[in-house]
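DM from R.C. (forwarded with permission)

"hey, sorry to bug you on a friday — could you get me a structure for this? deadline for the figure draft is monday and I only need the backbone to look sensible"
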Amino acid sequence: MKLAGSLIVSCAILLSSVPGFAASGGWQSDGQGTRYWHVTPPPGQCNISQAKNRALRAGIYRSEIIQQDDNVIVLRGLDQSGDRREIGFANIRGCPELDGYEDGRP
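My reply, with the result:
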C-alpha cells in the first residue's frame, strides 16, 4: 500500500515538472461551478471542438474523430435521417470544410 501511494506522488511530481503541462489548458471553470476541458490548439491549427461545432451546423450529430493529421480532420456522425456521414476539415485556423470531402471521398 505504501508503494502505491509513493508511486502516485512520484507521478504527480513528474507531471507537474513537465514544462507547459499545467499551462496548456485543461480543466477550466465558468465561474458558476461548472468545469469543462479545454485545450487551445497550437496557433494556426483547427480546434477539435470548433470542428465538431461546424459539423453540427452542417447537420452531422454525435460526431467523433476518425482521422486527424497535420493536414485534415475527419469526423463521422449521424445525419437527421440516422445515416452515417463523414465530413472533412482542413487542419488550419478556422477549420474550413473541405469541398468534395463527403463520406470520406477526397
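R.C.: lifesaver. Confidence is low (pLDDT under 50) at residues 17-24.
me: no worries. The two ends are 54 Å apart (CA to CA).
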